[in-house]
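Researcher: We're reviewing a set of sequences before deciding which ones to prioritize for further study. For each one, I'd like a predicted 3D structure that I can look through quickly. This is Galactan 5-O-arabinofuranosyltransferase. If possible, include the structure in token form so it fits the rest of the review sheet.
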Amino acid sequence: MTVSTEGTATVLPPGGPAAPARPIPAARRGLGSRGTLLFLEAAVAFAAALVLPLLARGFNFNPLDRIAQVSGLAAIQLRFALIGLVLIGAVALAVRLRGGRHFDLATRFASAGLAGLASGFVAAGAVVALHGTPWPMFGLNGDSGRIVEWAHAVANGRPSGSPVYPPAPLHTLGLYAEWFRGGNTAYAFKDLQILGAAAFGPLVYLSWRMLLGPVRALAFGVAPAFALIDAYKPYSQTVLVVLIPVLVAMVVSLSRSGTQGWRPLLLKGAGFGALLGVLFLTYSGWFLWSAAGVLFAALLYFPWREGRLGRLKGAAFLGASLAAFLVVAGRYLMVMLTEGQTTKDYNFRFDNFTDPAYYLMWRTDMPGKVGEWPLPGEYGGVGLFALVTFVGLGAAIWLGMRKPMVVTIAAMFISAWVMRMYIASNMYETQTVQLYTRTNNQLLYCGLLLCALVVHLISQRMAARSARSTADDERPAATAGAGSTGFPGREGAVIGAMCALLLLLGTVSSSMADRYMPAKENTYRILPWVSHTITEQDGSCPKYAPGGTCSKDGDQSWLSFIR
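Model: Here's the predicted structure for Galactan 5-O-arabinofuranosyltransferase, in token form for your review sheet.
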């Protein structure tokens, strides 16, 4: 179900663009078919995601000591950097070996490995934060406690406490608990918090590989997603960052459906529908914010001009997608359309009292120490980061107005913005929130993606110009040289990009891991802190319980932090 938007691969020899380019036939680019290579990429990504969490299990730090937390983050960062440099070194070595024959293969695996390592960093941070306690973040309190309770009920054949809550996480937790934790959904949830954070990078990377090459998927899809990675309830943010490339790939396939054969057309449509059904069962909120934008993009790129047969194929593609979606998630969709209409959110949190036009950072219901918020910016109160995202939106539309990828993401951005303002504008009258602040994450991710796509589109044009210059250089000197760009070969660009991404992802992952280091304060650091204060099932206290004391529910000081 891959929908590539890029051309065929070309390996340039070490001599750079001035030397003749050597295309690599598809049959000789790797170990086998494209499907086999993607499977191997997935294996590398998921294996890399587990390396750092497994290594972190051997750390002997007191997770409640700040110096120990800093040492733990540094130890993870050191291992992340060393393994990442090994992957980049393999790419550099592939340039020289056998005339660069395996450069593309090494690039694939290194990109997949870096994506897995980055989310493995955050998962390793969760391992350090929860070292010495069997409980998940927040123990049996708040959302964690409800999820544990509902999953236990589902695992024992009883209905969950909320029919509208996505069923996939509850069933997954219940089954995992039965298989690996003797039915203890609380202890099992700790494992899935760590594994869910680790799987974030590989899942995002593989989703973007439907649209982009390895390095571009890492740089323009995975890197922006790390602004949202979450180790507390990893499934909700994972669905968002996977859903966007899946919807974009679906629109791209729809635009090409008029010229495809019937069998691949129907299979691809059914595949998209089934995948969207699984995502809907895992977390459905993002579908609401995205629906209007995706509908606009689908109508825009429907094969209207492909004749009657083309329009029929487009309708068949959408029909197969809808049928597969209903098979997978139809029952839950009916629940959402009926009981979901009567479900109201009356909990006003910190972000509900801030300017609704500000979406660049979601402070959650535990915002920490804040003064004036949002922070006053330089341009009419708007900061430079916001200006960059707005310029990126305009530039992406300018450069990619005819590209489904750009238009679909821009449409989803606008759709979420309109839904946000609509719900917020009715908030006073209805006295309900309806989770509209969650659109922060979608707006931020779409904005970052559009900025990244500006770089993507510009780099594509530079690469095309470089290829034309290379062709000109092969002609006699009298007619060549004027078109030369002066840029080095593609290999240098790939290695340079990977070095930059190694530092970027390592820094961001460290920050997101530090977000959950235990501390008794009005932030999400209180979540793992509480986990260290809850009595274990055998009656003992966790190893690093503050003062050696614990209780059934744990430290309840967090209640004073909730607005």
